[in-house]
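Homework help thread (please don't just give me the answer)

Our assignment gives two proteins as sequence + C-alpha cell strings and asks us to describe the second one. The first is just a warm-up. Here they are:
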Amino acid sequence: MLLNITQTLKAQSMLSEELLKKIQGFHFRTRYLANDLFAGQYESAFKGQGIEFAEVREYQPGDDIRTIDWNVSARFGHPFVKVFHEERELTVMLLLDLSGSHLFGTKSKFKRELLAEIAGMLAFLAIRTNDKVGAILFSSQVEKYIPPRKGAAHVWRLIKEIFTYEPQQLTTNIDVVLNYLNRVVKRQAIVFLISDCLDTGFDRSIKLTAKKHDLTVIRICDPAEDELPNLGLMTLQDPESGQVALVNTRSKALQEKWRDYQKQHTGQLAELIKKAGVDMEEVYTNRSAVDPLTRLFNRRRQRIK
C-alpha cells in the first residue's frame, strides 16, 4: 500500500528521491506518534456533535432508569431501555500558515517542518477515528483549499502539499483565512489554526470563528524570537517583507527592545485568545511537540467531564 502511494506521488509530482524519502520518514514518524502516544486522547478530547438513537434492549441492573422506554416496556410487560450512540464523525480543518516567517528556525528544525509534523499528527489522529480532515494553506491570501476527506492516501497528499507547496505570497493575513473558512465550511468543524501568529487585526474574525467552530490555536515558536541571540554584528532579513538590516545583537538596548516587543505581542495575542474563548498551545522548534499536544488534549478532556 505504501509503495503504491509513493509511486503515485512520484508520478504525479516528479518528486526527487531525497524529498520522497523525507516525506516517507515523516509519514512513519507522525503515524507512530498518532497511533501510539496519542491513542485515545484525541477521541476523548474532541467529542461528536451529539447522540443518536441506536436500539431498544431489555433493562439490565445498573442501567439508568431515565433511559427506560415506557411504551415498549408496557407492551412487553417488563422494562426496556433506549440505547444511544455518539454521533462520532467529525470534520477536522487544518489552517496552515505557509508565510515566509515559517522558513525561519535557529535550532533543530524550521518552523515549517514543525508545522508539518503537528499537522501530520492531527491528520492521522482524525482518520484513525474515521473523521474527515481537510486543510487550507494560506499566507496573506488563501493559497490552496484541500476539501475534507478520509483515508491514509488523503493524509499523504496533505503532507506532500505542506512540504512542496510554494506560496505566492510571503506575508501573513490570519483574518483572510478565518473568513474564508467560515464561508466554505458550513457545518461545525474541529479547526486547528497552526501559525506563528505574527499578525494582528483578526480580532473580529477569530471571535466569529470560535462561535461557529471548535477552534484551537497552535502557535509555532522559535527560542530566538523570545531572546535575541548575542552574536555580535549580524545581517538580518525579514522573511516576509524582504527588508534587510545590519544589527548589533550585543547591544543591551536592542536586546531589551526585542524582549519588550515580543512580550507585548505575546500578551496581546494571549488576551485576544482568552476573550475569544479559544484554546492555545505554544510549540517550540527546539522541543518535542508531544508535551504541548498532551496538555491540550488533557485540558479539553477535563473540561468535557
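The one we have to describe:
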Amino acid sequence: MPATPVTYRAGVPVRCVAFDAEDCFDEVEAVFDELHGRYVLGLVTNGSTSPDRSPLAGRFDFRLAAAELGIRKPDRRMFTTAAAAAGCHPTELVSVGGQPDHDVAAPQAAGCRAVWLNRTGVACPPGIVPDATISDLAELPAVLARFDAEDAEALGAVGVGPHPEPWPDDARLDPDLLAAGDRRNVADRYRWWREDAIVEDLAAHQHPFHVAVENWRHDRNIGAVVRNANAFGAAGVHIVGRRRWNRRGAMATDRYLPVHRHDTVGALLAWARVEGLAVVGIDNVAGSTPIEGTDLPERCVLLFGQEGPGLSAAALAAADEVRAIAQYGSTRSINAGVASGIAMHAWIRAHAGAPPT
C-alpha cells in the first residue's frame, strides 16, 4: 500500500517521500539510511501500511494513518497534521509522492512544497505543478539539498543575530529568537517578536480594506498578492475559487494576516454586503474608470482576476465599480501581483497616514 513518509530538520523544510512500505524499490533503503538521523521521519498513509512490516522498520518518528485520523488524502488536513506532528509550519513541509492529486496538489493546498516521484515518465495532469519531479528516490537527497540551500540563502539575506544580553523585559519577545537570532523576513520593529504577537499587533493597526483574487486556473501570482496585502496592512485576503495557490510567493506572510476562501464570487459578495464593504473590481475593461482619477472607497474589497483573462463575467457583474490602471504599452494586462500592489498603494495614498517607524 503506497504511503507518504515525512522528514523534518529544524530550520529547513520538512521532506516527504512516497514508497511501498512492504515492497520497497531497490534504492529506498539506501536513501532512508542517508536521511535517517538528518531528518525526523514520519509516515502518512491512507491504508494500513506499517513500517514494522517493511525493511524501513525503526526509521520513523511518527505514523499518521487515515483510518485512525478519520480523514484521507487528498484532504489537506493530512498534511497540516503531519506538520504539527513534525513540529513545523506547513510551509516547512515538502511532500514527495507518486500520486499527483494526493501527494502534490493536496500538500500544496496546505502550503507545503511537493515533489512528484514519477517512476513511469507519464505526463503530469493539467493544473498540477510539482516543485520538483524525480524518477527515482535516489534523486531525493539532491532535491532536499537544493531546497535547503535556497532556504539558507533566503534566511541569511535578512535578519539579525542574537540579541545582546541582558535581554529586554518584553513579553512579546521570543526567547529562542533572542538567543539564536531572527532571520525572518519581518520589519525591524518586529525583530525577535513572537509570531502571535506580530499577528496581534498587525490586527490592531489593520486598514479597513480587503483584497480578493479569483483562482479558477491556479494563478501563481496569488502569493505576491498576499505578500502585498501584508505590506500595505490589508485587513485580510480572500481567495475565490480553488483552494490551492502559490504560497511560496507569499514569503510566509500568510502567517501574519487572515486568508479566507469563498467558493464563488457570489459568496464573496454576500460576505462583503454583511460587512458593509464596497466591492471594487480592478481590470482594464470597457466601462471601467481610472484608478488615478478619484479616490477608492475607504471600506472596500479590491477584487482582482486571473493573469490574462482578468476578472470573470460574474465578478464584473457583482462589482459595485470597476477601476482600470493606466497602461501605455502593447500588453492588455499586467499580472495580479503587480496590479494589486498598484491598487493597494492608491488606497494608501488616499486614506492612510505615515507607516509606523
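TA reply:
I won't write it for you, but here's a hint about the kind of observation we're looking for: The first strand starts at residue 2 and ends at 9.
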